[in-house]
Each structure stands twice: as structure tokens, then as C-alpha cells.
Design a protein that fits this description.
175 residues; alpha+beta; Nuclear Transport Factor 2, Chain: A; 4 helices; 6 strands; 33% helix
């Protein structure tokens, strides 16, 4: 149910943002936004975000999110708000096996210049809680951004969907 909700929410957000940007890469909107510069700023921010994961820098990782952001990752309840997100990130960066890399294959900015999204793929290595051994994961993600008053872009909705099949539970033994 949670996975279906995540996929549905991601699709709705993508459709909403895509419909906001019907024109072909405007040079500048009425709000003064520069589409190409905003796209590049978001690409640069995601490049830095990858570097912050490599460095396992909790402060810098948390700073990529707006105060009211929501993080949704496979196998966990949604983490609403920066404090909840920081707890999830703290758990992740404390894992010595953690390696996370993601790359957008689509970046789009609404013609209003205040909302944007990225869509792409990720790969991750982390310690399996059951076996205590490194496990590999890969999947896709959608991140929705809102432009801040200082001109920076912060994630407001960050959703990852694993493409690794869930292992079925072991059958119960009969007594």
C-alpha cells in the first residue's frame, strides 16, 4: 500500500509540474526566472549532494531540504520535516558501508520559476540489517524542488523507489 501511494504521489507531482511548463525552454518568464540557469543550478546542487553523501556530511545533506520537506525511501515510513529527515540521514551516514550515487536524466523547471523536479536513477550500497553484510540497491527517484527567497533550490519532496525485488517471507513451519 505504501509503495503504491509513493508511486502515485510521484506520478501526480510529475504530471503537475510537467503541465506547469508547457512552453519550450523559455529564456525568462514574467517572474524573471531563467529556465536554463535554474536547470543548471539544480544539476549543480545534485552534483554537490552526491559529494555530500560521499563525505557523509550530515549537516550538508540536511541543508539540501526545505524545512517542510518530506523524504520517502523504500522500507521506511515517510519522514516529514527537516528534523525527521535528519534522523533518517543520521542513520544512513552512520553506516560504514553506505555509498549512494544518483543522476538525473530529466530536470524541469515550471514556467513560474519557483518549482522544479528531477527524475533519475540511483545506486546504493548499505548494510543489510538482517545479515549485517553489504547489500546493493538500485532504483529511481523523483525530487521536487522549491526556489527559496535567497535564490537557492531546496528539496520539498524526495521519493526513491527501489527496483530490487522484495524477498518473500520464509514460510512458517508447522508444529
Amino acid at each position: 500500500m505504501n509503495r503504491a501511494y509513493t508511486i502515485c504521489a510521484a506520478l501526480m507531482m510529475t504530471a503537475m509540474l510537467t503541465s506547469c511548463n508547457q512552453s519550450a525552454a523559455p529564456a525568462a518568464s514574467a517572474s524573471g526566472s531563467n529556465h536554463d540557469a535554474d536547470v543548471q543550478a539544480i544539476r549543480d546542487a545534485e552534483k554537490q549532494w552526491n559529494q555530500d553523501y560521499a563525505a557523509k556530511d550530515l549537516g550538508k545533506l540536511t541543508a539540501h531540504y526545505a524545512d517542510d520537506a518530506v523524504l520517502m525511501v523504500p522500507g521506511m515510513a515517510a519522514a516529514p520535516g527537516k528534523d525527521a529527515i535528519q534522523k533518517v540521514l543520521q542513520s544512513m551516514v552512520s553506516d560504514p558501508a553506505l555509498m549512494l550515487n544518483f543522476q538525473a536524466n530529466k530536470v524541469d523547471v515550471a514556467s513560474s520559476g519557483d518549482l522544479a523536479y528531477t527524475r533519475g536513477a540511483y545506486t546504493m550500497t548499505a548494510t543489510d540489517p538482517a545479515t549485517k553484510k553489504p547489500m546493493n540497491d538500485h532504483g529511481s527517484y523523483v525530487t521536487t524542488y522549491r526556489k527559496q527567497a535567497d535564490g537557492s533550490w531546496k528539496a520539498v519532496m524526495d521519493i526513491a523507489t527501489s527496483e530490487v525485488p522484495v524477498m518473500p517471507a520464509a514460510p512458517m513451519k508447522k508444529h
